[in-house]
């Protein structure tokens, strides 16, 4: 209570210098890290019913435990995927702001949505791991957006964050603009678990965090490295995912 009391004047001063504004449209709002009603209403949150493995939203309820045709025909290497919202409109803008515009202040809000969308997998996991950047790209970008999201998911859930366990050992090209096959080739062999941290992974249930799920090539490559190190279960948790059409 004392700490909160000491912080209150500084928060008021910050609000005076930098008035709270909607990150989507810039209109004034009551508090930082919040959207205005208009932007909020445009978000397509991903909620049940959806495929139990890929988290692909269904247009209507097909029953408990139903899988999508994609999950049956081409099962992923990870155990399940959960995402907070469809990657379009304001959600895409939030991703771009976090990733390229230094808006790390958005990460706590986005992480809160992700925790809600995790369907209990964060509560049941042993540790949270972000999809890492190669050290050269991390140096140029200054921070890893996936690590920012993972840090706040870990803080909100009280789960351990293993930020240095999974490494990106291959400097890959940007995935934007590449087709599905090219994306797979680009990230093949790109990840490895640090030889000094193998015990962090063996037999454990891991939540792998990234900002966007598109074709799944990146998280699949990262999952292979985690499974090779003995991970018992891997849930992929992203803020957004690309959705073509509802099933």
UniProtKB/TrEMBL annotation:
Record InterPro entries: ComF/GntX_DNA_util-trans, DZR_2, PRTase-like, PRTase_dom
Biological classification of the source: Bacteria, Pseudomonadati, Pseudomonadota, Alphaproteobacteria, Hyphomicrobiales
Listed name of the protein: ComF family protein
Classification via SUPFAM superfamilies: PRTase-like (SSF53271)
Every Phosphoribosyltransferase domain range: 178-240
Matches recorded under Gene3D superfamilies: 3.40.50.2020
Residue ranges of the TM segments: none
Ranges of residues in domain Double zinc ribbon: 14-61
One Pfam family per UniProt: DZR_2
Family: Belongs to the ComF/GntX family.
